[in-house]
Amino acid sequence: MSTSQTSPVGRWSGKVTYEGKVDEFTVDFANNGTLSLTTHRSTGQGRWTANGEGTFTFTVKEEFQMLPNGQRPPGVLPGAAYVQIDITGRRAGATFSGSGTAQIRGTDDSLIHSTQAEMTAQMVTQ
């Protein structure tokens, strides 16, 4: 994968907006097309692909971290095991923005809820 000024390779810090809510995240895009995502209540792994001239797509499976008492974090829907995220993004210098879908899935992979998501991020390290 390319590490040019149009590639997402590097560490990014950003915010995702969905259904009137805003969550912060950190995402690391690796040269080999993999990525890792961290939020205050979840972690995720996925893949990204460059589409040309600063555009890229990525998919990530974001798994909820259980609290020490075995409960789900506040705000997580009952029965939710993970979120499948599919985003199309565009890099412009040290920022990127993107939009796509977030599907909340159960332990049996059943669809619990689907929503649109918008994100913006700033590069932390390349």
Features:
single chain, 126 residues, mainly beta, Lipocalin, 8-stranded antiparallel barrel, 0% helix, 67% strand
Q: Could you explain the architecture of this structure?
A:
- This protein has strands at residues 10-18, 21-29, 34-38, 42-52, 55-64, 80-92, 95-106, 111-125.
- By secondary structure, it is mainly β.
- It contains no helices and eight strands.
- The chain has an eight-stranded antiparallel β-barrel.
- The protein has one domain (10-125): T3SS negative regulator GrlR (Lipocalin, Beta Barrel), CATH 2.40.128.
- The mean pLDDT is 89.
Describe the secondary structure blueprint for this structure.
Blueprint: E1 10-18, E2 21-29, E3 34-38, E4 42-52, E5 55-64, E6 80-92, E7 95-106, E8 111-125
Antiparallel strand pairs: 1-2, 1-8, 2-3, 3-4, 4-5, 5-6, 6-7, 7-8
Radius of gyration: 14 Å
- Helical run tally: 0
State the CATH class: Mainly Beta
Reading side by side through the largest sheet, how are the strands ordered?
1-2-3-4-5-6-7-8
Indicate the multimeric state. Answer: single chain
Helix content: under 10%
TL;DR of this structure?
The chain has 126 residues and is an all-beta fold. 0% of the residues lie in helices and 67% in strands. It has one domain (10-125): T3SS negative regulator GrlR (Lipocalin, Beta Barrel).
